[in-house]
Design brief:
By secondary structure, this protein is α+β, with helices and mostly antiparallel strands. Helix content is 30%, strand content 33%. A hairpin with a 5-residue loop joins β15 and β16. The longest helix has 20 residues.
């Protein structure tokens, strides 16, 4: 067994026993890590993949383990990183969950990434703040700030509402005060303030309730047991991996030059004219996107090849910069007429990721393009690309392992939610590559520009022009008392005379600044090749907003329904209120013309406000376009992308409430609405100057 802390005398026998000792260690610690994994993932298949990848990575990285931290903390850092990778939300390939998600884990899913990491590691894994700070590579004071904002967010998700108004200058003292670690002078000052401030009393009391709930999590989560055959399944899978490793074919690297005499001649021409690279790549590279990178000397052309079970993968080229690492590939099915794609979040593994890559860096998702000319040429060949995290050195070698491919077929958009393709199963195999990469430089330009969206200030700070993407850095002000921007969408960015479209599939990064009233974001656009900005304009498209508008409606299952009430300029109907196990409440609003809200943010309470611990919602709704045309997507398939300026209105909310603890019936007593969400379409062209 591997001890919690490894000394110099223990590494040798561990290496001799190979992966078995690591499996033994995980068998001893499986309960705490299983709960940690459940905080990010939602089904058994993902959990098994999580442990499988972690064991492999721990085994590979064991010689590089540094003794300045405990072994468990080091393993947890690997485990949590793989958790993030497996839990990334991909809007186009969202999978149907096969297992129900518990309410507590649903609340965790609503937190920001850094909040979730800090809360889960502190309260689910039970690590100290010092250990969490070391693992997340921030200061201990920063961890306390993240925990504070995380508990505040959980407070809303757990039904307390967003309307507490404690004094901000005392927020930083809440956790230390409740944990009894606040120094005495500050404690006295805080308690004096509490005595006179009703708002802070209420704020602290609700904050304490949520914090106590978190501290009692180990007891609440005792019922989540690791499946009996979980470790045995992992052992069998790892044994099969070792068997394949011993039998696999060595990769074949094919390099060659066509028309050697002409090549030498053209090299001479290129020396004088610079024309050869364009001509050469026009002849030899059919992938237009990869060709563009190669013509601008921004990537490396490769011809790496490996085959498994009749499926051949070729790595055609790489482009690496500070934003991401792009890998272009070709997959050929030599036995059948099938097309396969790589999914960089499932079945693609970088063996030396911790050595060569920035673990906090961006990793994008690119959906398959079956309509491109090159993917229509042959029914058994697919050309695609994947995004990996940026490398942390100027150059290196990526050790890429592929264990699973996804079979794809072209499909009508109406049949598959507007995607134009279907995933028809997995192809299991073993393909390995050692891919040389060189990081190309990026250029940053300081910006000066500001606008307002629905009265909320937005400022633009920086433009990063990298080979693989153009990144716009901007900040959104959070001081507005009753509304905020959840997401700002762009149509395009114009630099000089060149327009680049927004990357619809790129995640929007954000981070709090030293000024807590602003949040920083990044938005990715298509690459700009060799462009030096003189003029920068950005076209806004839409903003997703949250409005705070608190309203309480008393419920009584003994009364006749429907009954109506006014909210946000609309008349909302309560169609049904039934006590029971489960209790049922049905709310509807079919009047969507000029309706201010699209969805409501609410909670329903019973006689015992702590009794309701399960709330399931079923919705009906419609889409309405710019011209007021309504589409009922519950009755007919709708292609969302083909509707001009669509708004999604929920028209019926059916809610079921249960008391899972005692099994007693629930009697709904109060509907509490905290606010609502709405999308606003914009047509603003913002002109931004360079500093």
């Amino acid at each position: 067994m591997i001890p919690a802390k490894i000394d110099s005398n223990s590494i040798a026998p561990i290496r001799e026993r190979d992966v078995e000792s690591i499996i033994d260690w995980f068998d001893q610690h499986k309960q705490s890590f299983y709960l940690l994994g459940l905080s990010y993932l939602s089904n058994q298949q993902q959990m098994e993949e999580l442990f499988y990848q972690t064991i492999i990575k721990v085994h590979k990285q064991l010689p590089r383990f540094k003794r300045d931290t405990s072994f468990e903390t080091w393993v947890t850092s690997i485990f949590i990183h793989i958790c993030r990778e497996l839990s990334y939300d991909r809007s186009l390939l969202a999978r149907v969950e096969t297992e129900p998600r518990q309410d507590f884990f649903k609340a965790l899913d609503c937190l920001k990434e850094n909040e979730k990491d800090a809360v889960v590691l502190t309260y689910v894994k039970g690590m100290s703040k010092e250990e969490v700070a070391h693992l997340l590579q921030v200061s201990e004071n920063k961890i306390k700030g993240i925990l504070f904002s995380g508990i505040q967010s959980l407070r809303i998700e757990m039904g307390y509402g967003p309307t507490f108004n404690g004094c901000k200058e005392y927020h930083k003292d809440y956790i230390n005060y409740l944990e009894r670690t606040l120094d005495r002078p500050r404690k006295i000052d805080f308690e004096k303030h509490l005595y006179h401030c009703q708002d802070c009393q209420e704020d602290l009391a609700s904050f304490q309730d949520v914090m106590l709930t978190m501290l009692n999590l180990p007891d609440r989560l005792e019922d989540f047991h690791v499946p009996v055959d979980f470790i045995e399944n992992l052992e069998a899978r790892l044994a099969e991996k070792e068997k394949h490793r011993q039998k696999r074919n060595k990769k074949r690297i094919r390099k060659g030059f066509v028309f050697a005499g002409i090549f030498v001649l053209l090299i001479g021409i290129d020396f004088f004219t610079g024309a050869f690279s364009n001509l050469y790549y026009n002849w030899t590279e059919k992938n237009q996107e990869l060709r563009a990178f190669l013509q601008h000397d921004l990537g490396e052309r490769l011809n790496l090849e490996d085959e498994s079970d009749g499926v051949k993968i070729k790595i055609k080229g790489t482009i690496a910069d500070e934003v991401q690492t792009l890998v272009f590939y070709e997959i050929e099915d030599t036995k059948k007429d099938s097309q396969y794609m790589m999914d960089n979040f499932d079945g693609v593994f970088v063996e030396n990721q911790h050595e060569i890559m920035d673990g906090e860096g961006y990793q994008g998702f690119y959906p398959p393009d079956l309509e491109s000319d090159m993917n229509k040429e042959e029914k058994n060949v697919y050309h695609g690309k994947i995004s990996l995290q940026p490398i942390n050195t100027d150059n290196g070698t990526i050790k890429l392992q592929i264990s699973k491919l996804q079979k794809i077929i072209s499909d009508s958009a109406e049949q598959n939610g507007g995607m134009g393709f279907q995933i028809m199963g997995d192809k299991i195999g073993k393909w390995t590559f050692e891919i040389p990469v060189t990081k190309k430089p990026s250029v940053e330009y300081a910006l000066k520009g500001e606008t307002q969206v629905e009265g909320i200030p937005v400022r633009f700070d920086k433009l990063t022009i990298a080979p693989t993407a153009t990144v716009l850095h901007y900040d959104i002000n959070m001081e507005q008392p009753n509304k905020q921007i959840d997401n700002l969408n762009f149509n395009h960015l114009q630099v000089n005379d060149k327009k680049v479209k927004v990357d619809l599939y790129a995640r929007s990064f954000f981070d709090t600044q030293l000024d807590v009233n602003w949040i920083s974001y990044q938005r990715h656009f298509s690459p700009l090749f060799g462009e030096k900005p003189k003029e920068v304009n950005v076209q806004l498209e839409s903003a997703q907003l949250t409005f705070d508008d608190h309203h309480i409606i008393e419920l009584d299952s003994s009364k006749d329904y429907p009954q109506t009430f006014e909210y946000a300029g609309s008349t909302i109907s309560i169609d049904k209120v039934e006590a029971g196990q489960p209790a049922k409440v049905v709310i509807s609003d079919h009047g969507i013309e000029n309706r201010a809200y699209e969805t409501l943010h609410f909670q329903i309470f019973g006689e015992d406000e702590n009794a309701i611990n399960s709330m399931e919602m079923y919705t009906e709704g419609v889409l309405m376009d710019k011209n007021g045309v309504v589409y009922d997507y519950n009755k007919n398939p709708v292609i969302y992308e083909e509707i001009e300026q669509p708004r999604h209105f929920i028209t019926v909310l059916s809610v079921e409430l249960q008391n899972d603890r005692t099994g007693e019936k629930v009697n709904p007593k109060r509907l509490e609405i905290y606010g609502y969400n709405a999308i606003k379409y914009l047509d603003d062209l913002v002109k931004i100057s360079l500093k």
